[in-house]
Amino acid sequence: MTGYEEPGLKQRLRNIWQTVLDQEAVEDGDDFFDLGGDSLAMVYLMTEIDEAFGIELDVEELFSLGFSFDECSRSVESALSVRPVSPAR
């Protein structure tokens, strides 16, 4: 994969999705809304991503791409390639 990829980044993001959506497992192609996500869960997810990685994702961009775990992961990786990751809190 090209660009910045922190070891364990996908797993950290997967853990956030699992917590926010109260799911035991989240697969790469899973859709946020198909897993029970709604607008309030979206706000929670964005807050958790900001706290974990120190980045703010463009929600409109994610929606235009289709809000799958894969797309979210790529967006996080892209944002981190421009800005170094902050330590986990």
Write the layout of secondary structure elements.
Blueprint: H1 9-21, H2 39-53, H3 59-65, H4 69-82
Helix pairs in contact: 1-2
Short description:
The protein is mainly α. Helices cover 55% and strands 0% of the residues. 18% of the residues are buried.
Question: Overview of this structure, please?
Answer:
With 89 residues, the protein is mainly alpha-helical. Helices cover 55% and strands 0% of the residues. The longest helix has 15 residues, at 39-53. It starts with 8 loop residues before the first helix and ends in a 7-residue tail after the last helix.
- The count of strands amounts to 0
Rg, please? Answer: 12 Å
Give the termini distance in whole angstroms.
26 Å
Low-confidence stretches: none
Shape assignment? globular
Task: State the major sheet.
Answer: none
Name the beta content range: under 5%
**What class would the helix/strand composition place it in?**
mainly alpha
Helix content: 55-70%
**Number of helices in the DSSP assignment:** 4
Summed over residues and divided by their number, the pLDDT gives a mean of: 84
What's the helix-strand series? HHHH
What are the key terms here?
4 helices, single chain, globular
